[in-house]
């Protein structure tokens, strides 16, 4: 039986082995399941419990390392001039 996109999906890929990262990543980030319904700003979305979509996972990882919210970051995220966008 095929799962719907809204259902939790487990993805196993050896390229995603966090133990191979050049920076130490805490165990709470290992084995997080993909869940499309758990996105930033979504109802009852907080942290990584119950899985996360890629954005929620990235935001939690950034918070762990002390980065501010992505859109507020001016030190590590360069801005784009509005006249540079066509």
Description:
The protein has 86 residues and is largely without helices or strands. The chain has 1 helix and no strands. The chain has a domain at 14-73. The longest helix is centred in the C-terminal third of the chain and has 11 residues, at 54-64.
- H/E order of the elements? H
- What structural category do the secondary elements indicate? little secondary structure
The percent of residues in helical segments reads 10-25%
Biggest sheet: strands, sense, closure? none
Topology of this structure?
Elements: H1 54-64
Annotation keywords:
single chain; 86 residues; disordered N terminus
Concise synopsis of the structure shown:
The protein has 86 residues and is largely without helices or strands.
């Amino acid at each position: 039986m095929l799962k719907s996109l809204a259902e939790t999906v487990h993805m196993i890929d050896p390229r995603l082995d966090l133990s191979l990262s050049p920076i130490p990543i805490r165990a709470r980030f290992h084995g997080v399941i993909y869940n499309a319904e758990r996105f930033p700003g979504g109802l009852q979305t907080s942290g990584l419990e119950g899985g996360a979509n890629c954005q929620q996972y990235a935001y939690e990882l950034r918070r762990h390392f002390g980065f501010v919210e992505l859109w507020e970051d001016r030190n590590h995220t360069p801005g784009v001039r509005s006249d540079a966008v066509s």
